Structures are given as C-alpha cells and as structure tokens.
C-alpha cells in the first residue's frame, strides 16, 4: 500500500511537470510574439515600444531554456508572477478565490452523491421497469442540458418567478452565514444536477454488474437481510468505480465552474480566469491554469489512493 | 428488424430533422436574422413571428435555426476533424505499438491532463474569439478521445485471424489499416462521434455564452441565452426557446449515442436487476408448513419429490429439471452426480431459493425437517422464508471460492457476518468464534488470516474460508456445489478430507455433495444420485451402485473414469440433449449402447430393482 501510494505520487508529480511544461510551451511556441499578441486589440497593431518593454518585462529576450527554468523555479517557490492589471501577486488572488470554487464543487458533490447513489441503486434493482426508464430519461435530460442553461432557468424560476432565493452574488460566511448559504444554494444545485446524472448512471451500471457476481449469492446464502446485502456486498463494491468517476468529474469541475460562476456572479477561481482571459492578463491566466491543472492531478491521485483503500486488490495489481 | 435497431429510429429521425433544418436555412422562407425592428422589440409570438421577436425586434425563429446552423457547423466540423486526426493516431499507435504508440496515442493523451473547458479557454485566449479558433480548440480537445477509442479497437481487431493472415501474406500495412482494420473499428468510431458532437455543442455554446465563442451579430444559441438573461423580467420566453433548442439537440445526439451503443453491444443492455430484491412478499405464501404430522425419529432430513425447475421464457416454460426425487437422512451424505447441464447445480440452488431470476421451481415438493421438528416445504417458501433457513439450517459451499467471497472484505468479517446473521454474540465471543471456525477448517495462523483479504489467500485456503462461512451456525444440511472442482488435485484431496472431518464432528448433519467427478463419490458419500438431462436416472447406496450399476449412463460414467475400476476407459459418445430438444422417450437413448425402439416410445418409469435402489431404465437387467 505504501509503495503504491509512493508510486502514484511520483506519477502525479511527473504529470504536474508535464502540465507546467505544456502551459509554458503553449504560450511560447505558438506562432507570433506573445507580447505582441497580448498587447494587440483585434486588428489594431500594438505600439512597438510597448511591445519591446513588455518583452523585457516578460523575459522573452532570454533564451528559451532560461525562460523555462525561471518559469519552473517560480512554480516551485509558489511565485506565479504579478498581474498585469494591478501588479498584485497572482498567488494572493488565487488563494482568496480557490476556496469559494471548491465550496461550490464540494457542496454539489455531496448533494449529487447522496441523491445519485440511492437512485442509481434503485434503478438497477428495477432494471427494465418503469422507474428505471423514468430515472434514465431524467438523467439523460440532466446530462444534456448545459450548465449555463440550467443556471439561467433556475434563476428564472427561483429568483424571478418564485422569489425565494437570490439570483446571484456572494457574501462571505463570516459576514452573514445565512445569506452566504442562500447564495450558495443555486450555484451548488446547478452544478449538482449534472453531477447527479453522472453518478446515478454510473451507480446503476455498477450495481447491475455487482448484483450478478457470485459473492452476492454467498451473502444471500448466509441469510443476511436485503438491507445488509445491499449495503455491505452490493453498494460497497459498486462505490469504488462510482467514486472514481466522482473524482474525475470533480477534477473537471475545478476548471469547469466557469459558466456557473459567471451565471451566478460567484467570485470564484473560474470567474477570475474568464476576466483574466478577457483582459489578456498573461501571468494571471498561466497561474490559474496551472493551479487548476495541479489540483486536477492531485485529485486523481486522491481518487487512486481512496480506491486502493476500498479495494485492496488495486494496490497489489498496479504497484 | 430487431428491437435495438427499432430503437434507433426515433433519435435517428430527430437528428436527421435537425440537420436538414439547419442545412436548408438559406432556402427556408425565414425572416432576415439581422433585420431589426426596434418598435416591436420583445413582441410576443404572432402570425408573422411564430416565436416572437427579441430585444432588437429580430425574428426569434429565424435566429434559432440560423443559430443551430452555427452551433452544428462548429460541433460537427470539429468532431470530423478530430475524428480524422484521432483515428489516424489511434490506428497507427494500435497497429505498430512501441515507439509509434508513444508519439501518437500517449502524446495525445497528455491533453486529457487539462480540464476540457480550460483548454478551450486557453486556445481562445491565444487566438481570440471566433468560429475558426473554436473549431481548432474543440479539435484539439477531442482528438485524444478518438485516439484512445480507436487504439483500443485496433488492438482488438488486429489480433483476429484475418489480419494476421494478411500480415503473413505481406500486404502493405497502410492497405491493411485502410481496407481491413478501419471498417472494423467503424462502430466505436460512430458512437464516439455522436458523443463528441453533443459534447462539443456544450462547450461551444458555453464559450459563446461567455462571449468568447461565436462573435455577434452571427446568431448562436449561447449568445441568444446570454442576451435573454438580461431581459428575463420582460420576456422570459426568450430564454426558454434557445434553452429548449440547445438542450433538445444535445439530448437527441446523446440518445443516438446510447442507442447506437446498445445496437453495437447488445450485452451491455440486457436487463438484469434482481427479482429477489424487488418484492419481499411476492407471493402471499400460504403457510409453507406441511400437514404431515411430525415424526421425529424416522423422518428424513430432506425429502424432494418430483421437483421441476423451468425457464420463465416468454412463451411456454421450458423444463430444465424434471421429476427429481431425492431424500437425505440426518447424518447421511448424498452425492449428486452428472455431467454439466444435468441439472444437479440447479437442484441444489433451488433448495436454498437461490435460483437465477430467469428460473423458478414449477412443481414438486421438498420437505425439510428443521430443528424445531415442524416440516417445511422448501418449494413453497418465499425469499423472506428462505432467509431464516439460509446459513442456519441449510448452508451452501460454492464452487469458485475466489468469486464467492467478497474481494473487498476481510475473511474474518465475512465469517463473522454469517454468525451475526442468526445470532447476537458479544464482540469478544464473535472474535473467538471466528478464529475457532477458521482453525476448525484447517487455516494455519487463523488470527492473522482473519485479517487477510480473499486475494491474499491460496485457492485451498479460500475454499476452507468458504466452508467456515457455511458451517458457522452448525447447519443441519450442508450443500456443497462442486467444492473441489476449481482446485489442484492435492488440494482437492485436502478439502475432501476436511469434509470427512466435518462429518465426523457433526454426525447429525446431512451433506449433499454435488460433483461431476465420480472418483470423489466413493470417498465421501453414503448414497449416490445420478442425474442426466434434468432427471434422476439412478439412485442407491454407493457401494451397490458402483458394484452393479442399474442404468447404462451410470455404467458408462464408471467406465469413463480411471478410478471406476474399468479395464479400458470408454468415453460416452454424443452430448447431453438441449432442454428444448429432449428425446420423447428415454433421454439417454440417443447415446445409449443398450437402446431399443421401445426406449424411444415413452419416458421410462422409475423402477426399483432392489430395496433402496431406483433406476429409470427399462432394460436395467442387461446393464452390467
């Protein structure tokens, strides 16, 4: 187990290095001068003097390998540079906004799992029946509706028509906990809907598969009650792939809440990214993309370790 | 046309309609998408403008169709571009492997390290908003998906004989890839394509919604939703139309993908489920206790009479097990012998109500005498009734212990669970009982092994643990279904020895030992019941049956094993008939050396050639 975790951690570190390198290369090897690209607005050419100044500021005149090394050193020491817009360190902004994004994702994950696993299990038990079809249709519809559509429609319903929840915004939990939770409801619920669909479908598929396994028959032969069989021998075994998918989905969401944060005016990390992209603030974009990618890699690592703890065969087979 | 193909019609037609609609947009009599009409902004639906007018008074219907054109153009365009690149990478990587695989498939997979929307945003940052950067971003995004799927499919296909043959003949690799492998990986490619189109539409509309995708005034669903949001109070319908169009189109493509998958891989959709979990009280069971007065002293432990098990197939139920009668006395070991397909395992599963969902008991009785002395008919029990018997009165040892034990739970826990299902001991008592049980079945160092997972034990130890689970509550009837089949011969002998020890330790316990191995029978059983094609063909004390078989099938079985004492091994010609093609008369007649025309005339009756002996052969006297 320890060896397995060590091995997986090394893999994760390697992936982080790959990501950092890709982001670096993406911005340096594309045709055209990044400085010029950043300063030009549409077809209007940038001021050559400004471009030259920016080139020096960004260190673009140094050889590529030197730029790469200083970039790596910056990442290692947690220095992601200063924002073009206000000169403040990018790390500070990220540290402030990341928890808000994680809050939405975690709340959504909890809602989605508590609803999705039981419903998926129920659908699997009733496979081929009316309830199964209804749940399947509902989850297909939820999967097919883009998150900003769901967000806009729930605002229309809950904020505009029913007027029971605020349409968007953010209040720190230290300022007004109740209002904070009220504001959290709609974005978290919106993210949860898509996640719920994924978890429900995955739970249904794995529970169906586990139900056919021999050890479930053994559990029945022991004289266990249905609840005990379902909990210990079916859902427990089915949870392993479901958790894997949940982890992967959450990883995708760290960068994918862009739209939700935009729709609900939630000042999280993704919204920051959009405004950075809009303003073409190079250090901000690089810093955010890197943070998200690194979180993504480590979340996958966490999923692997949790899986190995739940299913002892995994550590054995893959290390 | 089969059912799965028919399911394709609805989403297929819907996709066709959507595609036709956007293709025909230039020739349809639609209003000008840019024709503003400020006085009539936010006008409700009218005869001229079916879906009303937007914030600039433009026709919503026209913008909806043209917007779909933009969305679909980007989604399908990038799906096709990514398909071409990804398929090429996947084919090359899967065919040549090695270095080629690393520079194609593995290199493409690096893209998957980045969250998709993020990558798209990054590309748009660099190249600016617009249709072409969008297509490029989405192409990069989806190339690894194709590469992966095609890579896996190529690996599968290239192992097939016809590809090997072409390679051997020296056909050029490009030709093999293009003419032979590509057509064979088309199905997963199609599934992937519909999935990517749906997914690309999600990202395209999202970016357009953020103002980073399609550039106004080109209509796009994402942009329409963005604009409608600011006018939500005035005209909520403006938000509803593009939302419906977008979600509906994506749903259609997703459905098409689902259905395609079920057509191409029918296994994935066979309805499973678990009937036993659905309705605990399926039948309002009339008290299953039989009326026979309890006769403690002489009553058999189990008396099966005319048991029948059938497939609940749609049309008429088809008998798999038929007229089976077996009795087990307390302390007696009955071996149930037969080839695969003889119905011996089904019979044993029926006794604990563990038949697969597609099968059910359709006739007969199985009177079991529990501890309390009131006989129960097992054929009338429902799931709830069986529960109290399973594990405490009747236990089972299954064939493949590796699969029959839960891989993610410790051995000790699985044994403890069996005890707790019927008793309520303290933690300490439970621990002691578990370790004592593991010791009893011959597991060395039981204290440490109790904390092991099944995969950490050897095959023989797993089977011992399985037996420990079965005997945890000292059952009165133990059913062992081929308990040694999956094991090495030396381990087989040890497990067999364990069963003998168990019998000596618990003289009252009845044992039904299901096996296809005649050699084991003489070592463990008191009586033997031979089954063939779902029927009992012969039954009697082991020594007598072996010395003088009274059914040609038994005789042939004995002659086919070295331990049978035969001078020369004789294989039985032919195979067991299929359940839907049973011979009208004796079921063994087609393979029988003694068969006569009268054997085919009618099913032979059960005859008792001697006390305690039964045979289903009219020519038993001639069998030696």
TrEMBL record, chain A:
Subcellular location: Cell membrane
Keyword Ribonucleoprotein: no
Database matches in CDD domains: TM_PBP2
Pfam families for the chain: BPD_transp_1 (PF00528), BPD_transp_1_N (PF19300)
Tagged with keyword Membrane: yes
TM ranges: 12-30, 104-125, 137-159, 179-199, 238-265, 285-310
GO aspect biological process, one term: transmembrane transport
Segment forming the signal sequence: none
Topology term for the membrane: Multi-pass membrane protein
Ranges for domain ABC transmembrane type-1: 98-307
Chief localization: membrane
Gene Ontology CC terms: plasma membrane
UniProt keywords, alphabetically: Cell membrane, Membrane, Transmembrane, Transmembrane helix, Transport
Top-rank taxon, per record: Bacteria
Protein family: Belongs to the binding-protein-dependent transport system permease family.
Protein name according to UniProt: Peptide/nickel transport system permease protein
TrEMBL record, chain B:
Primary subcellular site in the record, as a coarse category: membrane
Feature: compositional bias, Low complexity: 285-294
GO cellular component, one term: plasma membrane
Membrane topology: Peripheral membrane protein; Multi-pass membrane protein
Domain ABC transporter: 302-558
Transmembrane spans: 12-31, 72-96, 108-129, 189-214, 234-257
Gene3D superfamilies in alphabetical order: MetI-like, P-loop containing nucleotide triphosphate hydrolases
Sequence segments annotated as region (Disordered): 275-297
Transit peptide in keyword set: no
Cited Pfam families: ABC_tran, BPD_transp_1, oligo_HPY
CDD domains referenced in this protein's UniProt entry, alphabetically: ABC_NikE_OppD_transporters, TM_PBP2
Location in or out of the cell: Cell inner membrane; Cell membrane
GO term, biological process aspect, one: peptide transport
A single GO molecular function term of this UniProt record: ATP hydrolysis activity
Domain ABC transmembrane type-1: 68-257
UniProt entry keywords in alphabetical sequence: ATP-binding, Cell membrane, Membrane, Nucleotide-binding, Transmembrane, Transmembrane helix, Transport
PANTHER family the UniProt entry points to: DIPEPTIDE TRANSPORT ATP-BINDING PROTEIN DPPD, OLIGOPEPTIDE TRANSPORT ATP-BINDING PROTEIN APPD
Family assignment from sequence similarity: Belongs to the binding-protein-dependent transport system permease family.
Protein name: Peptide/nickel transport system permease protein
Organism: Puniceibacterium sediminis
């Amino acid at each position: 187990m320890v060896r397995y975790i060590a091995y997986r951690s090394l893999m994760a570190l390697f992936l982080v290095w790959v990501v950092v390198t890709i982001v670096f290369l993406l911005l340096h090897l594309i045709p055209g001068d990044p400085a010029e690209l950043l300063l030009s607005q549409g077809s209007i050419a940038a001021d050559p003097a400004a471009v030259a100044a920016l080139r020096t500021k960004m260190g673009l005149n140094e050889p590529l390998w030197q730029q790469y090394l200083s970039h790596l050193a910056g990442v290692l020491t947690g220095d992601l540079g200063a924002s073009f817009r206000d000169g403040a360190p990018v790390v500070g902004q990220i540290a402030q906004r990341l928890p808000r994004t994680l809050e939405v994702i975690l709340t959504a994950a909890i809602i989605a799992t508590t609803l999705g696993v039981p419903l998926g299990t129920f659908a699997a038990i009733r496979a081929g029946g009316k309830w199964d079809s209804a749940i399947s249709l509902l989850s297909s519809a939820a999967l097919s509706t883009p998150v900003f559509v769901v967000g806009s429609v729930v605002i229309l319903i809950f904020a505009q028509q029913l007027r029971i929840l605020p349409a968007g915004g953010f209040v720190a939990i230290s300022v007004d906990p109740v209002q904070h939770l009220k504001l959290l409801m709609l974005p978290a619920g919106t993210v949860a809907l898509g996640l719920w669909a994924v978890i429900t479908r995955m739970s249904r598929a794995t529970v169906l598969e586990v139900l056919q396994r021999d050890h479930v028959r053994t559990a029945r032969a022991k004289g266990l009650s249905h609840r005990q069989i379902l909990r210990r021998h079916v859902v427990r075994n089915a949870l392993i792939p479901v958790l894997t998918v949940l982890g992967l989905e959450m990883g995708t969401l760290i960068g994918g809440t862009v739209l939700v944060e935009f729709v609900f005016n939630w000042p999280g990390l993704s919204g920051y990214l959009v405004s950075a992209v809009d303003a073409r603030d190079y250090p901000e974009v690089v810093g955010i993309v890197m943070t998200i990618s690194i979180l993504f890699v480590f979340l996958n690592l966490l999923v692997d370790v949790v899986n190995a703890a739940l299913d002892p065969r995994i550590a054995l087979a893959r290390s | 046309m089969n059912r799965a193909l028919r399911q394709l019609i609805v989403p297929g037609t819907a996709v066709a309609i959507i595609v036709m609609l956007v293709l025909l947009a230039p020739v349809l009599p639609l209003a000008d998408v840019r024709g503003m009409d400020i006085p009539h902004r936010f006008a409700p639906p009218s005869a001229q403008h079916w879906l009303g007018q937007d914030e600039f008074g433009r026709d919503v219907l026209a913008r909806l169709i043209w917007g779909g054109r933009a969305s679909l153009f980007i989604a399908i365009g990038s799906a096709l571009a990514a398909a071409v690149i990804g398929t090429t990478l996947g084919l090359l990587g899967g065919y040549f492997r090695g270095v080629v695989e690393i520079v194609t498939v593995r290199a493409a997979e690096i893209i998957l390290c980045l969250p998709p929307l993020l990558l798209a945003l990054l590309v748009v940052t660099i190249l600016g908003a617009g249709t072409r950067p969008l297509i490029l971003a989405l192409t990069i995004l989806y190339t690894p998906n194709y590469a992966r799927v095609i890579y896996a499919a190529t690996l599968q296909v290239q192992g097939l004989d016809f590809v090997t043959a072409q390679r051997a003949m020296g056909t050029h690799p490009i030709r093999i890839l293009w003419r032979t492998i590509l057509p064979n990986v088309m199905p997963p490619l199609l599934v992937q394509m519909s999935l990517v189109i749906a997914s690309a539409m999600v990202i395209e509309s999202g970016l357009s919604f953020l103002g980073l995708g399609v550039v106004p005034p080109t209509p796009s669903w994402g942009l329409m939703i963005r604009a409608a949001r600011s006018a939500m109070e005035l005209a909520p319908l403006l938000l509803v139309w593009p939302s419906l169009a977008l979600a509906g189109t994506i749903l259609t493509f997703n459905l098409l993908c689902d259905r395609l998958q079920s057509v191409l891989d029918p296994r994935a959709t066979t309805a499973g489920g678990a009937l036993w979990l659905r309705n605990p009280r399926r039948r309002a069971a009339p008290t299953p206790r039989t009326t026979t007065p309890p006769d403690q002293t002489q009553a058999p432990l189990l008396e099966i009479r005319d048991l029948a098990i059938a497939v609940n197939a749609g049309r008429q139920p088809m008998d798999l097990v038929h007229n089976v009668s077996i009795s087990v006395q307390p302390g007696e070991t009955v071996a149930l012998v037969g080839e695969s397909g003889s119905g011996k395992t089904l019979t044993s599963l029926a006794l604990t109500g563990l038949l697969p969902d597609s099968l059910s008991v359709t006739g007969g009785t199985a009177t079991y005498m529990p501890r309390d002395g009131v006989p129960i008919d097992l054929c009338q029990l429902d799931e709830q009734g069986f529960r109290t018997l399973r594990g405490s009165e009747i236990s089972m040892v299954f064939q493949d212990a590796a699969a029959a034990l839960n891989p993610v739970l410790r051995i000790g826990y699985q044994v403890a669970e069996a005890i707790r299902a019927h008793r309520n001991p303290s933690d300490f008592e439970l621990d002691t009982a578990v370790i004592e049980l593991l010791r009893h079945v011959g597991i060395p160092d039981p204290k440490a092994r109790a904390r092991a997972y099944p995969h950490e034990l050897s095959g023989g130890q797993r089977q011992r643990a399985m037996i420990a689970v079965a005997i945890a509550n000292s059952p009165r009837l133990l059913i062992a279904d081929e308990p040694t089949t999956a094991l090495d011969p030396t381990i087989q002998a040890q497990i067999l020895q364990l069963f003998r020890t168990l019998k000596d330790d618990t003289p009252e316990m009845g044992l039904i030992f299901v096996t296809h191995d005649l050699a084991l029978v003489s070592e463990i059983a008191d009586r033997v019941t031979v089954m063939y094609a779902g029927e009992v063909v012969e039954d009697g004390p082991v020594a007598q049956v072996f010395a003088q078989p009274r059914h040609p099938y038994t005789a042939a079985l004995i002659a086919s094993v070295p331990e049978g004492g035969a001078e020369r091994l004789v294989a039985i010609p032919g195979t067991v008939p299929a359940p839907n093609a049973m011979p009208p008369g004796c079921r063994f007649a087609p393979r029988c050396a003694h068969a006569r025309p009268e054997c085919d005339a009618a099913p032979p009756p059960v005859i008792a050639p001697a006390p305690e002996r039964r045979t289903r052969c009219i020519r038993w006297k001639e069998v030696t």
